[in-house]
Amino acid sequence: MTERQTEQNFGSFRDPAGNVFESDGAIFRTVTEKGREDYEFFVSSGLGSELQSKKWLIPYRELEACPIPERGQESGAQVWKWLEVEKVPFVSWPCEWCFHQLKDAAVLTLKIQQAALEKGMTLKDASAYNVQMFRGRPIFIDLLSFEKYEEGRPWTAYRQFVMHFLGPLLLMGRRDLRFSALFRDWIDGFPVDFVSKNLPWTTRFSPSCQIHVHWHAKLLRKYESTRGEQTAQPKKKLSLRQLKSLIESLLQMVQGISAPYPQTEWGNYYEDTNYSDSAFEYKQQIVAEICARLEPRKVVDLGANCGEFSRVLPASVETIISADIDPVAVDKNYVQVRRAKERNIYPILQDLCNPTPGIGWLNAERSGFFDRARCDLSFSLALIHHLCIGNNLPMDYVAQMLSRLGDHAVLEFVPKEDSQTQRLLRSREDIFPNYDLAHCLEAFSKYFSRAEQFPVKDSLRTILFFQR
Fold first, then answer.
1. pLDDT bracket for residue 270 (50, 70, 90)
2. Which of 63, 149, 166, 203 has a CB 3.0–4.6 Å from the CB of 199, allowing a cystine?
3. Can you say whether the dihedral through the CA atoms of 447, 449, 450, 453 is positive or negative?
4. How far apart are CA 6 and CA 20, in angstroms?
5. Angle between the 395-405 and 437-444 helix axes, to the nearest 10 degrees?
6. Element (DSSP H or E) covering residue 174
7. pTM for the whole structure
8. Do residue 82 and residue 159 come from a single domain?
9. Which residues contact 6 (CB under 8 A, 6 or more apart)?
10. 263 within domain boundaries
11. Is the pLDDT of residue 74 over 50?
């Protein structure tokens, strides 16, 4: 009899209303006595069922008994109820999202707040980490983020919404799509004063930007400078009508933010590739054949660009992590996922030479990419020359990286003679005497026991299939 594998999700330790546990692949959430009253109203008001019917909230069910006996004993009377929550196939973080993923998550958060107010509730926090990408769309995952609305009380999550959504979106739309990477440094969102300082000066002529960002930053500075004074300030009240107007104005503002695509190296990769049609089709055929043979459930497509080969994979693949370094390529990939309602493709931003690390408390609150991306099969198509020549990575480092992902790896070897490799060497000295197919096979033999070769027709390239 195998021992049950149970661990607490480290990202939930801050919430006194309940915690999240994973046990043998299933996800469970506790509701403590502190969270009981709000959760009961969340259910009795009909808000929970409404959000589920709209597919805005992660599916869950209440349990009659504790599903993890050892946790029930140690939790004692603190735990009032256990819930089983549907598992998100691949958990991603805001620093890995493209512009439209963050924008869709922001819109969802505001629409949920509107629905909550209609039921006499409000969101007590508006963290981007409360949202995950799920079957081609964003979904809200924090069942305990709701509390009863009190007449006259402002939205306590307003500042957090500006820091997690509005500020980053404005910087991505008005300045640069790559601003999302700063979520790595600021797990609690972008400081409002930072957003204000880095937005174009023309945004000061926008009433909405002036109110929600620039004046907001000024008020926060004023508060910081007078925080030590003893004079009690009366709390400002906000009527329900005013609060609804605030949420509607934020929604209109977010929906109006756009991000024109700049010209990037990978945004139009397959329009500029050196593949012939026959070589491209043969490559697709090999990918499909390997998947048919292996029948993987979870695949990682590294250097996926706009997801061209992610879409070649059979429908039986339940989860496809479609990762690329280019924010335009990832955004195009996600927009296609959303448009076509593709349920199994998860586009994310990922720099393999600087992958998402563990962040937050003890670097464990939000886990790193390689802790989340273990898979049945990885694809690295037209990637190795960028890693080894473009980034000076030794061949065996690449082999070690792919072995960390799983027991099976597909690699497209792009030789020096290939025009794309020659383009990389054009602007630098060739210091790579061991960059060839033979040394590639030797390097990977340290981590994988078997290798199959598939020379790509009408091309100098070779598809390699490695197995542990």
1. low
2. 203
3. positive
4. 11
5. 40
6. helix 167-174
7. 0.94
8. no
9. 21, 22, 23, 24, 68, 70, 71
10. no
11. no
